[in-house]
Task: structure prediction
Amino acid sequence: MTKIIGKALKNIPWQDKPEGYTMPVWRYTQNPIIGRRAIPSSNSIFNSAVVPFGDGFAGVFRCDSKSISMDIFAGFSKDGINWEINHEPIKFVGEDEEILKREYRYDPRVCYVEEDGRYYITWCNGYHGPTIGVAYTTDFKTFHQLENAFLPYNRNGVLFPRKINGNYAMVSRPSDTGHTPFGDIFFSQSPDLTYWGKHRFVMGTVPGDTSAWQITKIGPGPTPIETDEGWLMIYHGVINTCNGFVYRMGCVLLDIDEPWKVIMRSKDYILGPEELYECVGDVPNVTFPCATLTDAETGRICIYYGCADSVTGIAFTTVDELINHMKNNPL
Ligand code: BMA
Result:
């Protein structure tokens, strides 16, 4: 039994694994939980992140508008399933007008760092090309934008929920200006969330046909989950097919003190596009995880993921399911 290091979350959204189901991750039967038109301006709501907040939940949602402008919106929920999303995008406050200028914003992650009492938001932020935007809030009303973490081009910046060896820690996926046909995961460290360095390679794509769902590019997904065996990280992996990219999810266990060191990684994916709402939409065949809720008491994990760049779904697993999956399907 692996233990999640963290808090109990009695109201975590949950359904038991269906009888006879063989995959390590199973979908919520009422998916998708957020449809395209959940706010008046939206064309699609997907690739979004949630956290426990008060006696319920809060989140930051990617809503593309009907002009296909990509922006991020705050939202609230009592049960983690039914969401009220603000109709206006987040307006950041900050010290530097240059950084506050908006080009586009998408694929948010939210990470609570207890020692700071702050919820940090990271997202793909347009600044002469995609880079990683960073902000924090304490109330999901006022959002303070900090410096972008990196130079362009980078997508998928995911913060760790505590400092490691005295530094903030982030995994990210350097990219290009377009629909990047490559990409590995790197680890970076910062004493102050402004200056990032001590970059380390974590892991790359898998050549050949050993694990071809992750042959083209990979990127970090939700905030890594601390366990007594290491950091459990769910990530996305992509293969380029004759019909375009297909996005699936996998998992990896990283060393607790040196998270650029991989302990175990799964060869088989844990979830991929199969249901209609994952296979059909603005971008077909995409399952894109951006957040988890975890319950340290039971080991339960609820994954939030974007479906076909159109709607948002949830799926369930446990820490033991994922650890066993890696043990039984080692890369
Ligand atoms: C990636 C990002 C994601 C998106 C995915 C599939 O490059 O743009 O937001 O879900 O492509 O279109």
Remarks:
- The chain has one domain: 26-328.
- Residues 47, 106-107, 179, 247, 283, 286, 288, 306, 309 surround beta-D-mannopyranose (CB under 6 Å).
- DSSP finds three helices and 22 strands in the chain.
- The helical segments are 97-100, 276-279, 319-328.
